[in-house]
Write a structure and sequence with these properties.
tt1808, chain A, 6-stranded mixed beta sheet, 3-stranded mixed beta sheet
Length: 142
Amino acid sequence: MKGRPCEVYSSEMRVKVESNGLYTYPDVVVVCKEPKFEDDYVDTLLNPTVLVEVLSKSTERYDRIAKTTYYRTLESLTEHLLVAQEEVRLEQCVKQENGEWLVFYYSSLDNLVELKSIGCSLALRDVYDKVTIDPPTRSEPR
């Protein structure tokens, strides 16, 4: 984000979904306009531009279904990424001008994800750098 008018926050930055009052802690938050906070504590962001969730076995269902549904009600949100931990898989949800969301799927280290809302590219090779992905195990025939 160097040289861009955006700020990046880690998982300590809470995001409030005002439509239902939910507070969440995304793994990465990017805001490209003037950040709006809930109060003077500056620990709850109201206007994220991009949210990133790293999926784990224990949180994937909630992150994928509930949080994604809640996030899509955020007026400021333009992109949402779901990043798998145990395989090379990234899902990019992009808000269209009509308010609908398109989802793009990436599963190769050679893929490059264009984050148009913040003017940058994200190489999956960089996302998964130093991450050991175990090959899928095949079950033995019965």
